[in-house]
Amino acid sequence: MGIIGALGVALVGLSMMVDGTAYGQTNTSPSYEGTTSAVVDDKGNMHVPADYQATYQMLGSWAVAADEGPGSKDMHVVYASPGAIVAYRKDGHFPDGAVLVKEVFKATTKAMTTGTVSSADTLAGWFVMVKDDVGRFPENKLWGDGWGWAWFDATDSKKTTSTDYKKDCQACHVPAQASDWIYIHGYPPLK
Questions:
Q1: What is the biggest distance separating any 2 CA atoms in the chain, rounded to whole angstroms?
Q2: Per residue in 130-167, pLDDT tens?
Q3: What number of CA atoms fall less than 13 Å from residue 134's CA on the CB side?
Q4: Nearest to 182 by CA among 102, 117, 97
Q5: What is the Cα 55 distance to its own chain's centre?
Q6: Residues 146, 147, 153, CA angle at the centre, nearest 5°?
C-alpha cells in the first residue's frame, strides 16, 4: 500500500473515531441550561427556536375537524427538543428543560385520488411549551403548573401574544391534566 493509500485509510479511521466519539457524547436528556437557552431568556420570555425543524424530533400531527363539511380547518405538527423523546420513554415524563413546539396551520381540503384530503396550508403560528420542574419564573404569568406556555403569531416568532398561561393557554389542555398537560396519546414516538 502506498503512502497516499495508507494516509487515506488513516484519515477514514480517524474520521470514524471522531464521528463515533461525537455520537457517543450526544446528550440524550435535555438540560435546562443547554436546550432552552436558545428559547428562554433570563426573565422567562420565550421565543420559537430558529432551527427546530432541523434539530428537533417530530412527535406527531393533529387534524382539527372543520366546523362544517368534510375535512379539517387546522393542522398541528408537533416537535420535541433533542433527547426529550428518549427521556420520556424512560420514565413517562418530559424532563426539565424539554421544549415542545407546535406549528398550527390553516388547512386546505380538496378531492384527490385517495379521497377527500386536508393538508397544511398557511402557517397561523406556533405554540411553545418548556418543561420547568423547579418553578424558575414565579413572577412571569406564562409559567406555571410545570411548564412555560406561549403562543406566537406567524408574523413574529420572537414575541408572544400570550399574557397569562391560565387565561390564554391552559384551558385547551385541561383534558390532559393527568398526563402533565400534554395529549400524549397523539404522539406515536412516545409509545
A1: 74
A2: 999 999 999 999 999 999 999 999 999 999 999 999 99
A3: 7
A4: 102
A5: 10
A6: 165
- Model confidence at 21, pLDDT cuts 50, 70, 90, reads very low
pTM, full prediction:
0.81
Kindly report the backbone phi and psi dihedral angles of residue 184, in degrees, each rounded to the nearest multiple of 5, phi listed first: -65, -25
DSSP character string of the chain: --HHHHHHHHHHHHHHHHHHHHHHT--SS--HHHHHTTTB-TT--B---TTHHHHSEEEEEEEEEPSSSSSEEEEEEEEE-TTHHHHHHHHSSPPTT-EEEEEEEEEEEEEETTEEEEEEEEEEEEEEEEE-SS-S-TT-TTEETTEEEEEEETT-TTS---S-HHHHTGGGGGGGGGGTT--GGG-GGG-
- Give Cα 63 distance to the centre of its chain: 17
Give the C-alpha separation, 127 to 147, whole Å. 12
What is the domain partition of the chain in residue ranges? Answer: 1-27, 31-190
Q: What is the CATH number of domain 31-190?
A: 3.50.70.20
φ, ψ of residue 126 to 5 degrees: the values are -130, 145
